[in-house]
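Deviations from the work plan: none for this task. Representative record:
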Amino acid sequence: MPNLISDIPAKRRFTVGMIGGGHGSFFAGIHRAAMRLTGCFDVKAGVFSSNEAVSREAAEALGVIPERTYRTFRDMAEAESIRSDKIDVAVVVTPNHLHYEPCRLFLEAGIPVICDKPLVNTSGEAEALIDLAEKTELFAAVTYTYTGYPMVRDARARVQRGEIGEVKFLYVEYLLEWLANDPSKLGKGGLWRGDPGKAGLTGALGDVGTHAFNILEFVSSKRCVALNAKLSTTVDGFGLDDTGVVQMEFEGGAEGLLWCSLAAPGHRNGLRFKIVGSKGTLEWRQEQPETLHLSRMGQADLIYRRGASDMTEEGASCVSLPAGNPEAYLEALAVLYMDYASALEAGPNWRTIGKTPVTDLNEGLRGVLLSEICVRSSQTKMWQPFPKSRMWGDP
Amino acid sequence: MPNLISDIPAKRRFTVGMIGGGHGSFFAGIHRAAMRLTGCFDVKAGVFSSNEAVSREAAEALGVIPERTYRTFRDMAEAESIRSDKIDVAVVVTPNHLHYEPCRLFLEAGIPVICDKPLVNTSGEAEALIDLAEKTELFAAVTYTYTGYPMVRDARARVQRGEIGEVKFLYVEYLLEWLANDPSKLGKGGLWRGDPGKAGLTGALGDVGTHAFNILEFVSSKRCVALNAKLSTTVDGFGLDDTGVVQMEFEGGAEGLLWCSLAAPGHRNGLRFKIVGSKGTLEWRQEQPETLHLSRMGQADLIYRRGASDMTEEGASCVSLPAGNPEAYLEALAVLYMDYASALEAGPNWRTIGKTPVTDLNEGLRGVLLSEICVRSSQTKMWQPFPKSRMWGDP
Amino acid sequence: MPNLISDIPAKRRFTVGMIGGGHGSFFAGIHRAAMRLTGCFDVKAGVFSSNEAVSREAAEALGVIPERTYRTFRDMAEAESIRSDKIDVAVVVTPNHLHYEPCRLFLEAGIPVICDKPLVNTSGEAEALIDLAEKTELFAAVTYTYTGYPMVRDARARVQRGEIGEVKFLYVEYLLEWLANDPSKLGKGGLWRGDPGKAGLTGALGDVGTHAFNILEFVSSKRCVALNAKLSTTVDGFGLDDTGVVQMEFEGGAEGLLWCSLAAPGHRNGLRFKIVGSKGTLEWRQEQPETLHLSRMGQADLIYRRGASDMTEEGASCVSLPAGNPEAYLEALAVLYMDYASALEAGPNWRTIGKTPVTDLNEGLRGVLLSEICVRSSQTKMWQPFPKSRMWGDP
Amino acid sequence: MPNLISDIPAKRRFTVGMIGGGHGSFFAGIHRAAMRLTGCFDVKAGVFSSNEAVSREAAEALGVIPERTYRTFRDMAEAESIRSDKIDVAVVVTPNHLHYEPCRLFLEAGIPVICDKPLVNTSGEAEALIDLAEKTELFAAVTYTYTGYPMVRDARARVQRGEIGEVKFLYVEYLLEWLANDPSKLGKGGLWRGDPGKAGLTGALGDVGTHAFNILEFVSSKRCVALNAKLSTTVDGFGLDDTGVVQMEFEGGAEGLLWCSLAAPGHRNGLRFKIVGSKGTLEWRQEQPETLHLSRMGQADLIYRRGASDMTEEGASCVSLPAGNPEAYLEALAVLYMDYASALEAGPNWRTIGKTPVTDLNEGLRGVLLSEICVRSSQTKMWQPFPKSRMWGDP
């Protein structure tokens, strides 16, 4: 199976158009580094910024020709859609409130889309995109990076094969520290996250809570059916929630709990989950992504390890380096891009690649719903139902 | 300062009467081992079981003379109260529903009381005992063992001196696995915990949730003012909650979260807390009690260690062994008994010993209130207020 | 099986005479705390110091009557040997150079002996004591505390049952920090350890290297047959080695490596071993004594835990508290004293108690030989043979 | 400062010729992935295998034109040296015994060289290459990957600035497990490592011991001056040492110890070091490369973290991702390639780039000397002097 390292024989390559990602857009650089790592993608077109000079500078640095450096994503969708060498996929890395329009335009132009998380700011928009993607049968994905870690996929497979018995309780925490600094000193990067006009309905919940929620559903293959949230602002001057606690119920009766914060000093990117089953408990921490901890009734704990011979097929299939030569964050994102390459190659059958489903627009919708329903619950101080939806990969 | 090891010069010794603790009572043996460790207590009287033969066997093994081996705790309270060499303190280690009566009788008989946790099964009983203790000015304590760990006291002192800034979020989890086994195979020891007639209003919450709640209030020096609980039974056939989640609000606006379970495979005695402040976060785990983890904004984490020269005075004052020669559970309980010895020596001024307050009947009451209020919240699916009370050591 | 907690029915009790252990003798207090914990020993006689006032103070604190508070250990051996209630065992906790004489006198007086480690300062003395003990068939033991940890015994049993295959490499390190401080500020406690007249031939090697060596032989059930040592003094003004490295060969061809130091800042009592076999590797750390780490070829690591149901019989038989309620250093020493109680009860058959052999005078001899042979190797810069001897428990 | 992620503005790019690295050459793929990650290198020429078909397949996959796909490295050196667009650097990833010739030829042809580790198989060859590189003033480096980890560089800087006081003891271990399998089942990949004709003088020592030795000298900025080695074969049928222990002396009197093995089950790529100073101890583990552990006399341990604001300049300058988004092995190798890009840009002044010196041919020589001197020591069972050489970056 091809992995990040294998480069002989050559992999099939895909051309990319980028929306967003000029100088100063930190995560766009990470996306491009992950693409380089795969050896499957070439950026060939783009509108890298609403500021023309910034966009041109990016195009030049990335080797995009002036003809394919566009002023607006509307221009780009139109022009690319009629080229014989049109881009294979559009990668959308603009700020949150500028996701919907480009996604819609490129799908309408017949071009598959990879969109940064969160997908959009309202569930209505998300549903509109889902309809569009279903009608066009085009590949469309949301980059929930943490689902690219091999040990997260290994955890998912172990839950599915019953290694922890029946799932009883799903715990996740995602804590960051950056906002705990004097907020008056926050740079532009931080402040927009507290601005409802840009970040959307929620702060911490939308920014990191959605990742946490997504990983619980991904690993457990279960859907949340109800929740009770308390969103709080602990840092003066921040315009949205910086901390949230969500109690959840999952289908089949499992309980869940989510705690997220942007203002927890000492936490850099502190995502961790603990899935309690009737026979064992699985734990994983993003900052030590190479191992998965299985503890069992009265017996020795097991430390599973990326690259070991006892990995599940689902985990092993996205391993690139041997055990002991650690992989990390960039590899996880690159694993998603490897999936995207397979999906693009598969065309309309893109949902059937591999054993691990792609995090698609439906998952993007659920992230948006999480924000909307948590706000409702937090305001009413009441439990709220959460709409069920199909499982990944289900028709 | 005397510690568990120091035995020259001799420490002052106190005579103990035990209520409960015959053969088969596991935790009574732990209490006596802790007392032996202190070198301050001698069991001289008791009613060790409602079964006379069991009680006599225990008396013999413990060297208690027949004259002071009683048939009922009522007999014992009466007889001891008029002896010239009456016991200095009564230690109550009966099952939960048999705490109230002996506590009441001994206090009325003018004898101080040390009672196992939870104090009693209703807040009315707890309040009655508090009134009695205040009237008699007698020492009375509830054994919240985990408050005896040096690094827990160190954590409390560090919070008080502002090392993590303003307290923002209090997280605690307390997970055990024993109930996850086939419940039909549970021995007598387990089943009574699911029997409302014996265990009280709650199962997991009363058994371990109270410890978790107590340690949050102890470490933060803050009081819970409202909560929203969801109590669940995940194991078929268990008569009470085996799992609980409690969202909390603390005075001054801090948020809190408690998760407890008796049915989390892979967890033996998994109590851990994380206190998030505006400048740093403190974490401690009962199964690795020798260290306290302080993580800070963008800087190296600190691993504080029992016995190191940079401990707080509050923590250092209950250290017995040098750093590197680990202490553990028995030492923690023995630290409480060292406190009790100091308290007994202080007489009516017992509240003023040392910097760390004794976990007294008021803390016992709050444990009982926790069960009552969580049941109300869980049934109504609503937030409920939690009565404020004086802080430890406050008049 | 009786353990530290079980006290009903009563255990058989033994009377103890102490040699050494007056005020200021730190480790004597630890020995007494361990004895208290067992509930099997009562100090009834002693010469607690060469300073009469100090000795009397100790006797009083410990409840030893004046008649049995002796001026010299010669007086004590003579007087006790003819009492009808003579002590069951003499516990020797004097400084190293005062071990030989009391051990000899008590054995000659027909009284079993428990001696602190290192046994004596020359192999000739050790051999004389061995001869005496064999002739008299009296119980005699050396307190290698670390062999009392349940997970160390569990490790030994796992090696014996072939869980790691054939033993290939034995690594141990034992690092402390105290000497790294400005040595001019060392108190009396430290300075004698660098004084050849008191500490013996070696410094770090005799003080902690012997523990490290003992634990390797104990866990592997293998004997060192040759070694190549380099002893160094890294702290100016210390009169003996403060650091040592010893390459070793074990019977059957296994390799070994020992590193010890008294001057390694950041290490409190840093004893850890790693036993590499053909199928797996076992690791244990004294500062986290509750777990034993087994790593295997290409498979999940196993974390064995004290108190779990998958412990070996040898490990489980010395467990007192349930898993999750941690045990530590005092319990380990108390486990040895539980063994000693069994041995005293067994009389001449004391070597056959239980599955784990007592660390006897022969092990004491090997510790002394270690110092002598390492000095020879370090001076000649050559490999030196190490005398083979019988295995624990062998006739 | 440019890092792996920054791609706007564009970085200067260099053309690469590869010697070795056809299909089946695992580490060549890793080198190319690291180059892709930097965004600074393009493979434009090569002889990828002695097998022409294999070489052509690689050329095609990598987009190398037939004209620059050569049959021998002699042909390649000649042809490239006279092209106007000749390669900027030759990357040598052939098996060990085929390093010398291509390095020599390319340096003679005026083309800088990056050579996989170990440099060559005899110190004579290494010295010849050093002479050549000095004469030509060409950049030449050996890829000691582990020196590219930010926290290794951070450790080096902390030692240099005196954070642990005077260096006293240098410990390193490097353990792998692959050979512990039934050696009769070893594939071709493994067997050549035990073949003196291909692997060189030593097995484990040359393969991993050299990395371990290099990292000690790199982190401490100290040179080994004498050693005493014991090389062993613990796996039947392996033609060279699979296990080694090396005692060392460093300039200025520090002691050292190295343990390496290819046959330690449970170890995947187990490189870790511990540097003991007079004031503190630094520890780092390759499998958890994001943190550096500083333990100190009687004070809290510090866990330094990649990306934190308290990193040293030397460490921070090679960071690409924010703390919490972990980096790992590929990033470490890519950091070396970033250095190489800077060095190629600097031309004859390449030694003066940055604060961290490039691991050059002199370090390659020391790796070869390590094998030669350890063999001599192991055979004679005697200490042997180790030639001093200039420090990195020294003229």
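The radius of gyration of chain A is 21 Å.
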